Amino acid sequence: MTSTRAALPEVKHKLFSKLPFRTGTAASAMWQGFAGSLLLLLGSFGVGWLASSSVLIRNPLFILARTTPVAVITTTVMLCVGAALMLRAWVRLRQHLAGWDDDCGPVLKKALSLWVAPMMLALPLFSRDSYAYIGQGRLMQQGLDPYTNGISALNNYFSLGPDTLWTEAPTPYGPLWLWLEHLAVILPASSPEIALIPFRLASLAGVILLAVYVPKLAARHGFNPHRALWLTVLNPVVLINFVASVHNDSLMLGLVVAGIYYASAKRPIVGILFVTASIAIKPITLIALPFVGLLWAGYQAGWVRKFGIWAATLGISTAIMAAMGAINGFGFGWLAALQTPGTVWIWYAPVGLFSNAVGFVVMVLGGAGAAVTDVIQTIGQLTSILIVMALAFLKLTLPPQSPQSPQSPQSPTKNGAIFLDQSQRYSQAVLRRMAWAFAAVVLLAPMIQPWYMLWLLAFFAVTGIPEGWQTRLTLYLSAFFTLIALTDQLSVFPWIPVVLIRTIAIALGLICILYVMFFDKKTRGQFLRPRQLASFPTTAP
Questions:
Q1: Rounded to the nearest 5 degrees, what angle is found at the Cα of 450, between the Cα atoms of 271 and 386?
Q2: Do the beta carbons of residue 137 and residue 184 sit within 8 Å?
Q3: HEC profile of 236-264
Q4: Which of 268, 272, 311, 448 is 20 to 30 A off residue 516, Cα-Cα?
Q5: In a 3-state reduction of DSSP, which class is residue 191?
Q6: Which of 421, 439, 465 is the last residue of a domain?
Q7: pLDDT per position as a tens digit, 87-116
Q8: Any idea of the CA torsion for 527, 533, 539, 541, to the nearest 10 degrees?
């Protein structure tokens, strides 16, 4: 017995010495992220979104959490601390798994499961879109066309809990999402929260699709699949906006990433089916179709073959969408509703800020400020369309062979460097162009929602985000959009000063995020270059 006990430390040392991380610290990062997700769950009880018709709103626990200032402030603090903990855990996980070999896979999957589970039980956070989904489902239940009617056409629509900004707007979603909305409202339910279950499951399905296909696409292009999984899917902005906020962008993005994987892997028909399913969630992914056609055509294709393949790609996708429209009776009504999200703007969207600033100045000077704003925004949208067309039509040059060390066990090597065949390099070049096409559409729009940036994260990650300033930029943007989520939409009763609660959220969220970025000795090195780190003031751990 004594000799067996004496041998255990040596066995443990041999086992753990083969791993690319310190097991204890990697586990602490995982559980820290779980704690952050759990705080988001608890915080949602006080400031998450509840419909006024919900039975939960009359539950003593929710009454206490939502109607007393102390409880509302406490739950707001929980949200801020929880989000900061998730950001810190995500950064720490990168530090502990920096080797990115195959032993990282089980750790990342366990971390993803732990971080998602509490959010699946939370009330919708930072967005009321999920309640708009219910309202659109009820429009169909009552025989109304959601492409011509807003939720305000329903009796007592305000009791459903949607954002009043969108209650008179037609739905911008495709037929597949409409079916899910209709399914949600015909479920036997005494509370809108029961009707949210299909949307919760859809958001989870999107995350699972990303967890499967982001690593596969990254590996196909010679990039480490585990790093891509960490960078994209475990990103706290992804989990907060897709799972906690219950956005249908999760399923839309998961389907389009799956589609471009199959198109890249020379299974174009399967790829078109997935991309079309994505379009039938949110039609913005129409942008992906010409690039799927390029993948199908191949590198050596001439213009005749390219246009033939583009026609076939569009024809297959259009036929599927037409069949869906014929089944639900709404046809291609979603085409007219594509402009719905463009009716508002936000301060960090360059075109939105510039157009409204110029319009304001013109109005002060006595001119037609609104017309000027509309013209600038229209120019932005037309420019984005021209950029997408240029990226699809201009001659494509294959990227050179990468001189870096192999990042993926699936990538054959030659003289210690990554060696990709022509089809892989072509796929990387096409998808990088597609990423820039989506970037043009997002950055030249007057409204940029935080989850729009997640489209770009996924598309750029599968074609390579190198270490250095590109990864630091990703970290900065992730911190920024985590903070934006915390300071965006909180559900606060009218008799509680909303200005006070938002001020607390902004101040505490800013303090927590800045601490993780610049003052936490264990994480600030990920945000600062070595020269900046040396000159930055030290603080207590």
A1: 60
A2: yes
A3: HHHHHHHHHCCCCHHHHHHHHHHHHHHHH
A4: 448
A5: coil
A6: 465
A7: 999 999 998 887 888 888 899 999 999 999
A8: 60
Whether residue 252 lies inside any domain: the answer is yes
152 and 85, same structural domain?
no
Planar angle of CA 239, 74, 113, nearest 5 degrees: 25
Neighbours of 491 (CB within 10 A): 20
Same domain for 330 and 427?
A: yes
Identify which has the larger pLDDT, 301 or 507: 507
Residue 495 maps to a domain: yes
CB 176 within 8 A of CB 281: yes
From CA 44, how far away is CA 72, in angstroms rounded? Answer: 10
pTM above 0.70, yes or no: yes
Please give the pLDDT value at position 159.
Answer: 62
Least confident of 78-82, 237-241, 455-459, 482-486: 482-486
| pLDDT > 90 fraction of the chain, expressed in percent and rounded | 50
pLDDT (mean) for 205-225: 94
Domain containing 506 equals: 20-123+469-541
DSSP-derived secondary structure for 113-144: HHHHHHHHTSPP-S--HHHHHHHHHHHHHTT-
Burial zone of 215 (CB within 10 Å; 0-12 exposed, 13-18 middle, 19+ buried)? buried
